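Escalated from tier 1: MTE holo job.
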Amino acid sequence: MTQVPRRRPWQLRDNELTDEKDWLHRRQIIRALGLGSIAAGVGILPGCGADATGTQSPLQERYAHEVGPAHRNAAYTLDRPLTEEVVAASYNNFYEFSTDKAEVWRIAHTLEPRPWAVEVTGACQRPGTFDMDDLIRTMPLEERTYRFRCVEAWSMAVPWIGFPIKALLDRVEPTGSAKYVRMVTRDAPRMFPGVVRQSWYPWPYHEGLTMAEAMNELALFAVGIYGHALPNQHGAPIRLVVPWKYGYKNIKSIAKIELVEERPPTFWNEEVPEEYDFLGNVRPDIPHARWSQATERVIPSGERIPTLMYNGYADQVAALYG
Ligand SMILES: Nc1nc2c(c(=O)[nH]1)N[C@H]1C(S)=C(S)[C@@H](COP(=O)(O)O)O[C@H]1N2
Ligand SMILES: [Mo]
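Tier 2 regenerated the structure:
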C-alpha cells in the first residue's frame, strides 16, 4: 500500500473555521445545495428531492413501518432555537464517507439502510437479532429535542425520534456480568467509500458506554430526526444519541450491540488517546489537548456561547460520575 498521510481528526480545524465562517452563511448553504425552494419559503418534502434533507429514496421504500412523526416528550426542552433541518443535514461527521462535513450528504446514498438487522449479544439471557422493521414497530418511539455538542466545539439542537436504550436492553435481559455496552457500525465497506479510502482507521467504527450510562433515561437509539426516518448522513437506520457526551460517542448506523464485562476499546480513544477519552463527557472545565472547551460555536451562525456542564444535562447524569 502507498503511504497515505495520517490525517489526525480535526487537524485542519483552523482552515475549517475559516471555511465555516464563510460557508455556513445560510444563503450560501442554500445556494450550495440548490435549495431555491427553501429560500423562497416553500417547504421541501422529506425523501423526495435531491437535497440535503432528502438524498435517499422515498422513506416508504426504506421502511415498511415509516418512522414519525412521533409524540414529543415534553420533558426535554431547549434553551436555544432548533437548528434548521437543512443545516443539520448538510454538516456531518461520518468518516465512513468523508472527512469533509459538507460532502457527506452528497455521497451517503451508497449506504443501504434496509434491510437492516441489529444483533444484540453477550452477557444477556435472551440474545437476538432484531430486524429494523420489528424495532420500529415494537419499541416505544418518541420525539426529543436535544442539544448536540461536537468535541470540535460546534453545536446544534435537533429533534430526534427514537427509543431509550433501556427499552432494548430490557428485552434481552442483561446478566450481572454486563458492565459495558459495546456498539459497532455495520461492517460493509461496499457501502462506505471512506472505509476503503482511509484504510488505516480501525474500522468498523465502534463505541461504548458503561451499563449505567446506557440505562440512563437520556440515552437514546435514534431512528428518526425532524419528523421522519434518519437520512443516511445522520446514521441510518439507527444511531446512538447521548446528548451529555461529545459527538464522537454518538455512533451511527449500528449493526451490533454487545454486553461485555470489560471496558471495550473505542474508535477515537484508540486512535488518539490523549485527545479523546472513553467517557467523552461535555466538560467546559476540561480543555481538549488543542483547544478550549469553555465555549462553543452555534451552527450555522457561528455565535459563541458558553458550554454547559454535561451539555446542560447535569441534573440527569452528574450522579453517574460520583
Ligand atoms: N460510524 C460513525 N459514527 C459517528 C461518526 C463517524 O465518523 N462514524 N462521527 C461522530 C461524530 S465526531 C459526530 S460529531 C457525530 C455527528 O452526527 P451528525 O452528523 O448526525 O450531526 O456522529 C458521530 N458518529
Ligand atoms: Mo464530533
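Residues 13-23 form the longest helix (11 residues).
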